[in-house]
Amino acid sequence: MGLDIGTTGCKASLFDEGGTLLSAAYMEYPLEQPKPGAFELNPERVWESVRRVIADVLLAVPGVIVHALSISSLGETVVPVDHDGNVLSNAILYTDSRGIEQAAIIEQKIGKERTMELTGVPLHPMFSLPKVMWIKQYQPEIYQKVWKFMPFGDFIAFLLTGISVTDYTLASRTMAFNVSKKEWDSDMFDAAGIEADKFPDLIQSGQIIGPIRNEIRQSLGFRSETLVVAGGHDQACAALGAGILHNNHAVDGIGTVECITPAYSSPILNTKMLQYQFNCAPHVIEGLYLTYAFNFTGGSLIRWYRDKFGQIAEAEARKLGINVYDYLNSTSATSPTDLLVIPHFAGSGTPYMNPEAKGTIYGLSFDTDSTHLYRALMEGVTYEMRYNLECLAEAGIPIESLRAVGGGAKSDLWLQIKADIMNCPVERLNVSEAGTMGNIILAGKASGVYQTYEEAVNILVKPLRIFYPSESNTSLYQDRYEKYKVLSRAISTL
Q1: Nearest-angstrom CA–CA distance, 385 and 350
Q2: Same domain, 258 and 204
Q3: Using CA atoms, how far apart are residues 237 and 263, in angstroms rounded to an integer?
Q4: Apex CA 210: angle with CA 158 and CA 14, to 5°?
Q5: What are the backbone dihedrals phi and psi of residue 62, each rounded to the nearest 5 degrees, phi first?
Q6: pLDDT averaged over every residue in the chain
Q7: Of 182, 206, 236, the domain-final residue
Q8: Does one domain contain both 373 and 414?
Q9: How far is Cα 336 from Cα 475, in angstroms, rounded to an integer?
Q10: Containing structural domain, residue 334
């Protein structure tokens, strides 16, 4: 079984040994916003949702024996838990504005360069350590009662097993983890004024945490002893689930956010990584490392178009009995557009990390119609990700091929645009949920179903189609991409 704990919902998926999906369940939960700029998750509500999706999945397959489960989750956000295992407060999300002044204290004491060298992440208030500092300063009555601050996936594993550990990939999202030594970093904790023992013990992804406690196992409907296996950060699990096991290969996750995640064999912590605000994180596979290059708009930009301008398309799709995105793809402009879309509709991701950045559509004329705009949105996101690829190469992480997963990977149009703009092959996989597949591989190897990760990937992860660059389109896009970079630089100063 794979569990995925997201920011807005959780999912449980049950697979057999050959990779066939037997059942799945999903449940949303709300964010809580106690005041402007504050965003929180209620851990007890998340736990109740997890219990329900597990029970629903098991009820759908009567008599099933679950050998093992593994958990992927959002990063940065930690749950404050006391010695009796009680949740002390809501968890502060990475999007929350709290922690800015605390990050400034760390910058003064440690500095941006040293923080990157130690932790593999650029100094930023989104990470756990500044949030915990804020709790200590402004909620001391909570801080004093805390036994452990647990990343969300590890919090769920703790409730299942009674054991508190965190894997390296989630630890790396705290800004308190030494990425080279793979241990908690005393310099970071000292600068923050936080006791290191308030964070869980560390464990390698794929190791067995322990069996589900009997009372929990019976209440959820597990019929035999089930092992809980250390999972990881959702993007790291997605890399494994897409079969990213070697240097120069990357997964392109085209979801609400688009994230390209390449793998490499030793930590890369140079000045270019800091300049472009890339992280260096452990892979869930021991001995490999990952970087997350991302843009805050991916599928969310296409959904914005559907919601704001797609009413006619939705009506036509209903008449034809097809998905609205399939209709939009089939009626889109068939050749590269002259429009340039800067896709910073929710601020910018790497390499800028500017929350104040705004989106731009340049090149509109009376000849522009909806089919051009729809295609241009896909082009704009892809230009942005190509720039990320160039920055990765400068930092010493060249990428030779991409494996596409997520909702956007279902679009032939978008994957061909990607191949043409990035001038590299793009593979579509049989994996619809790469993070869940990563969980299945971790659980399967730990329980002895698969002997190696390579064996599991060969069995479970299959390319369905490869999109190759079109020479004529690649030439056109090269010219437009150079203009895109000029426009992006120009508006960044406004």
Answers
A1: 9
A2: no
A3: 12
A4: 85
A5: -55, 135
A6: 95
A7: 236
A8: yes
A9: 10
A10: 243-430+462-494
In angstroms, rounded to a whole number, what is the distance separating the alpha carbons of residues 288 and 122? Answer: 20
Last residue of a domain, one of 220, 236, 252: 236
| Same domain membership, residue 288 and residue 160 | no
Shared-domain flag, residues 32 and 168:
yes
Number of domain units in the chain: 2
412 and 309, same structural domain?
A: yes
State pLDDT tens for residues 240-271: 999 999 888 999 999 888 999 999 999 999 99
Are 231 and 257 a contacting pair, CB within 8 Å? no
pLDDT tens-digit readout, 58-107: 999 999 999 999 999 999 999 999 999 999 999 999 888 899 999 999 99
- Token digits of residue 163: 């054991």
Q: Does 47 share its domain with 108?
A: yes
Distance from chain centroid for Cα 451:
27
Cα 60 from chain centre: 28
Distance CA(286)–CA(245), nearest Å, equals 10
Chain segment 356-410, per-residue pLDDT in tens: 899 999 999 999 999 999 999 999 999 999 999 999 999 999 998 899 998 899 9
Candidates 350, 356, 352, 404; CA nearest to 378 is 404
Report, in this order, helix, strand and coil percent for the chain, each rounded to 5: 40, 20, 40
In a domain, 445, yes or no: no
Question: DSSP 3-state assignment of 420?
Answer: helix
Task: Provide the 8-state DSSP code for 32.
Answer: B
Cα dist. 88→48, 78, 80, 189 in Å? 16, 11, 6, 22
Asked whether residue 435 is assigned to any structural domain, the reply reads: no
Maximum CA extent, the chain? 68
Q: Terminus-to-terminus CA distance in the chain, angstroms?
A: 49
The DSSP output letter for 122 is -
Residue ranges of alpha helices (H) inside 357-402 are: 370-394
57 and 160 part of one domain? yes
Domain assignment present for 253: yes
Residues 64 and 1 sit within 8 Å (Cβ to Cβ): no
Q: Is the domain of 92 the same as that of 210?
A: yes
Please state, in angstroms and rounded to a whole number, the distance separating the CA atoms of residues 62 and 74: 30
Q: Which amino acid is at 387?
A: Y
What number is the average pLDDT over the span 299-310? 93
CATH number assigned to the domain comprising residue 364: 3.30.420.40
Query: What whole-number distance in Å separates Cα of residue 171 and Cα of residue 154?
Result: 10
Distance CA 491, CA 494 (A): 5
- Predicted local distance difference test score (pLDDT) of residue 480: 97
> How large is the average pLDDT for residues 203-207?
98
Backbone angles phi, psi at 436, to 5 degrees: -65, -40
